[in-house]
Amino acid sequence: MNKVLIGVLAGAALGALDGLTALVSDPKVAPQIVGIVIGSSIKGVLAGVAAGFFARKFHSLALGIAFGLLVGAALATLVAMLQGAHYLEIILPGSVVGIIVGFATQRFGEVPLAPKPQPAA
């Protein structure tokens, strides 16, 4: 499996878990939980795609984790700003998703091989 696909799958799964944490922090959001989980999954997929492409280019666990943290925190901050509330409850789990996805894309998956040059005819 390639690194971008690892990022997409890990981001979607972790994003869904991130969305479900909304029930823990504020049980009053139960009527909106489906939308929250879908939105968090999309946010996780975006972070996973970014981390996957980063992992294809740079082969450093520390840089991959830092990049994942940066992307996860940035996306979560954007969502929190649009929401206008619950900054800590949104940014903290989103950042953790970014860290884990950054780790997963660096640690697992394959980098695609460069195509072999064709002999001149």
Short description:
By secondary structure, the chain is mainly alpha-helical.
Q: In what range is the share of β-strand residues? A: under 5%
- List the uncertain runs: none
Q: Could you say which overall geometry the principal axes of the C-alpha atoms support? A: elongated
Number of strands: 0
Q: What structural class do helix, strand and pairing data support? A: mainly alpha
Question: How many discrete structural domains?
Answer: 1
Average pLDDT confidence is 92
> What distance lies between the first and last C-alpha atoms, to the nearest angstrom?
34 Å
Figure out the total of helices.
4
This entry's quaternary arrangement is single chain
What is the radius of gyration computed over CA atoms, rounded to a whole number of angstroms?
A: 16 Å
Set down the secondary structure blueprint:
Elements: H1 3-25, H2 33-57, H3 61-83, H4 87-107
Helix pairs in contact: 1-2, 1-4, 2-3, 2-4, 3-4
Descriptive labels:
121 residues; mainly alpha; 0% strand
